[in-house]
Write a structure and sequence with these properties.
Tetracycline Repressor, domain 2, mainly alpha, Arc Repressor Mutant, subunit A, elongated, 205 residues
Length: 205
């Protein structure tokens, strides 16, 4: 039975995500997306009136998927410090995945033309991650919101952002396999994150 309504829209988004990642924005075409999604161009344009609008919607999908996979620090461990360490490790692991690296590069490449999509991507990758960590630290470590935000940014800035930047520039090889939460310690060196957490978090954390 042919897909319709929201099911078709979702299917188009998943298909378009793969097309954009494989070919880049400029070489991707609505013809290719329609063909791969096995739908008509008329149906495609009924859901997304332009390639720009489709790209913005794909970024929304990526944001949803990423934040769902990341979760919150409290999902990772009962111990406060270990939960923060594993959360940062999971963030880095997800961003070092080959598809994530391509997505961020794509967002950077289209930032001038599509600032809305770039802002959505930034919010998902950096802002939302830092906010979740800060909220956790404020609750567990009895820090003020300002203190918690500063500690979260310092922890991420020291341990995650440099490695991510290296991957974006092609200095480090990305992870080829889908990153599973059970493999955080295998995919990411947690020792520097633990050391930074020891220095930055309150002693009783």
């Amino acid at each position: 039975m042919a897909r319709r309504g929201e099911e078709l829209r979702r299917h188009i988004l998943w298909t378009a995500k793969d097309v954009f990642l494989q070919t880049g924005f400029e070489r991707a075409s609505m013809d290719v997306v329609a063909a791969r999604a096995e739908t008509s161009k008329r149906s495609l344009y009924a859901h997304f009136e332009s390639k720009d609008k489709l790209f913005v919607a794909v970024v929304d999908l990526v944001r949803e998927l990423y934040l769902g996979r990341l979760g919150t620090p409290g999902d990772y461990a009962r111990d406060t410090a270990e939960a923060a360490v594993l959360f940062c490790g999971r963030f880095l692991q997800l961003q070092l995945w080959e598809q994530s690296v391509r997505t961020v590069r794509l967002g950077i490449a289209e930032a001038e033309r599509l600032p809305e999509a770039a802002a959505e991507l930034y919010d998902a990758v950096f802002e939302a991650t830092a906010e979740r960590l800060a909220a956790f630290l404020a609750e567990r470590c009895r820090l003020t919101p300002e203190q918690a935000a500063g500690t979260a940014l310092a922890l991420l800035g020291r341990t995650v952002h440099p490695r991510l930047f290296r991957a974006l520039l092609g200095v480090d090889q990305p992870l080829s396999d889908r990153p599973e939460e059970s493999a955080i310690a295998a995919d990411v060196d947690l020792a520097p994150i633990r050391e930074a957490a020891r220095l930055l978090l309150p002693a009783d954390a």
